[in-house]
Specification:
Length: about 350
């Protein structure tokens, strides 16, 4: 028994292969419109009654070119523009290193060619990791849909970076400047600091989604296309009152492009020696999370407030903060100091 399913904007046919004992899928290349569904149903009937047609589809899919395969992959997903660009960036480097071929023609030797190209371009380990992670996901899609048997490319492990946060002194200088010269941006920076919201989330906050009676904000995780709840803390409540409470409309009417001036401002402040280094808007989120951990908030609560999909993200990037704090606490208590001193006197 076969059926039609939608992946992104494209209709696929899913069927059970009795010989291999598992379900398989292939793209009809038909868009998921009203007319497309009618056409896909006709194709499904032909497919169910004609085994030769199934073999024709499968053999055709196995010869799919890398660019056509990428197009099909992207059409089966709902991705942000930046993510689409990263997949295209990865495939362009694959083609530069190994040539443009059918997806089933890429072998393990091509992985070596790709690594050689990375070295030639002096790519960092993180850049290698980003490119290979996207290639692996793409070829995993090809494998899942029986275009290839094995994935030829391996993911390069990315180095875990400790969170880069705002220095308290630098942050005070930046806020003082904005308070006197750009009050609107001053409020936005404070909001990012008090909530730890991603920039895209902060820009989506609407007054009608702020429940003052029950004390929470219904925020949108644009990255994952889901909502989450954030408490209205005393700091957030004070800030919203400073902005001026309203019944509807966006709290901040910025567009992401208009926020580039903030980076230019910090660059000028760094050059003049007013602040110690350059910062980004996103580092306000890292500062928020780090401050929570430094002040002893349980990591599962930090995960919820940061709206991390998995607690492993919180652990991976921010647990080092707690480890450092515990080390400082141990040093402050001097638990083993007396024993160490006695041994030192004996050895001396």
């Amino acid at each position: 028994m076969a059926s039609i399913k939608q992946r992104g904007n494209i209709l696929w046919i899913k069927f059970y292969d009795r010989l291999e004992g598992k379900y398989k899928e292939f793209s009809t290349k038909i868009r998921a419109t009203k007319e497309g569904r009618v056409e896909a149903k006709k194709l499904l009937k032909r497919f169910e009654s004609n085994y030769d047609m199934r073999e024709m589809f499968e053999s055709k899919e196995k010869r799919i070119g890398i660019r056509e395969g990428l197009k099909e992959f992207l059409e089966s997903k709902v991705l942000r523009a930046k993510t689409v660009w990263l997949y295209e960036y990865a495939v362009n480097h694959l083609i530069e290193a190994c040539g443009e071929k059918n997806v089933n023609e890429y072998k393990s030797s091509d992985n070596h060619k790709l690594m050689m190209l990375f070295d030639k371009k002096n790519f960092s380990e993180n850049t290698k990791g980003i490119v290979t992670t996207h290639l692996y996901a793409l070829f995993n899609f090809f494998k899942a849909n029986n275009y290839i048997k094995e994935i030829a490319f391996k993911k390069v492990a990315r180095k875990v970076k400790l969170p880069e946060c705002y220095d308290d002194g630098d942050l005070a200088v930046i806020l003082d400047y904005l308070k006197n010269h750009d009050r609107k941006k001053y409020y936005f920076i404070l909001f990012l600091l008090f909530t730890g919201f991603r920039i895209s989330t902060a820009l989506e906050v609407d007054w009608k989604n702020i429940d003052f009676e029950n004390g929470f904000i219904i925020a949108k995780n644009v990255k994952r296309d889901r909502d989450f709840f954030f408490p209205i803390t005393d700091d957030v409540l004070w800030l919203l009152k400073e902005i001026g409470l309203q019944k509807e409309g966006k709290v901040f009417d910025y567009k992401i492009e208009s926020l580039k001036s903030y980076g230019k401002l910090l660059k000028r402040m760094e050059i003049k020696g007013v602040i110690s280094k350059h910062y980004t808007l996103h580092q306000l989120r890292k500062t928020f999370i780090t401050k929570l951990l430094e002040n002893g908030l349980a990591i599962h609560k930090v995960r919820a407030l940061a709206d991390h999909k998995d607690i492993s993200t919180t652990l991976k990037y921010y647990a080092a903060v707690n480890v450092k704090k515990m080390g400082n606490e141990m040093n402050g208590k001097g638990i083993f100091r007396d024993i160490y001193r006695d041994n030192k006197r004996l050895l001396g």
